[in-house]
Recover the amino acids of this structure.
């Protein structure tokens, strides 16, 4: 009955590989986000989708591509992984205009 | 200038004391302000939000907002060791500019010592 769930929780992969992280929310929210948290705990927004439509796309390399098949899912695909991509990636969701954003448990990505 | 600024700490307070966490933001048109708590290895969880100037109290937590000074703070009374965590300040931008964007500060690490 997890509200926002991400898979996998841990991901260790080699440079140059392509990987995906999946996110699903069962809260009925219409807005979903991807955030990246670096080693210094800075939580930076990457993308935001509202009802499957991309509404925020921060300065993120083209290697990162979000996909929202429906408003309950927002996946993140990363091509040609680099060492600097190592971080914790958080998915979050909320109602547009509502207060609280609920976060998933995070995916710790380690690129070696 | 960072959009949301916090002192990274660590801020150490003795058990039972008041912990004061501060945050400043650059966008004068910001609408809403949030405090999230993040334990090590866990996801952020919302503890307070505030929209209007002044104080908002919830149990041991008080959020204070001063839009003229572009300043928001969080006070934790009777601090407990379980309050030891990183506290993230988040600001929601104006509707026309930032849409639904929540911008986070770098967080302040709080340590409550026995």
């Amino acid at each position: 009955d997890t509200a926002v769930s991400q898979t996998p929780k841990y991901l260790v992969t080699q440079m140059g590989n392509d990987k995906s992280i999946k996110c699903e929310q069962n809260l009925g929210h219409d807005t979903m986000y991807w955030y990246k948290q670096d080693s210094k705990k800075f939580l930076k927004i990457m993308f935001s989708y509202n009802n499957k439509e991309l509404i925020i796309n921060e300065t993120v390399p083209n290697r990162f591509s979000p996909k929202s098949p429906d408003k309950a899912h927002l996946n993140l695909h990363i091509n040609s992984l680099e060492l600097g991509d190592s971080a914790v990636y958080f998915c979050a969701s909320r109602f547009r205009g509502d207060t609280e954003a609920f976060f998933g448990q995070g995916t710790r990505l380690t690129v070696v | 200038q960072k959009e949301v600024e916090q002192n990274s700490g660590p801020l150490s307070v003795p058990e039972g004391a008041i912990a004061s966490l501060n945050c400043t933001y650059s966008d004068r048109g910001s609408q809403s302000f949030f405090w999230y708590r993040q334990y090590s290895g866990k996801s952020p969880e919302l503890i307070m939000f505030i929209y209007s100037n002044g104080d908002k109290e919830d149990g041991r937590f008080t959020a204070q907002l001063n839009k003229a000074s572009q300043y928001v703070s969080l006070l934790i009374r009777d601090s407990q060791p379980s309050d030891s965590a990183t506290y993230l300040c988040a600001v929601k931008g104006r509707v026309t500019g930032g849409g639904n964007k929540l911008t986070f500060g770098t967080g302040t690490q709080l340590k409550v010592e026995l």
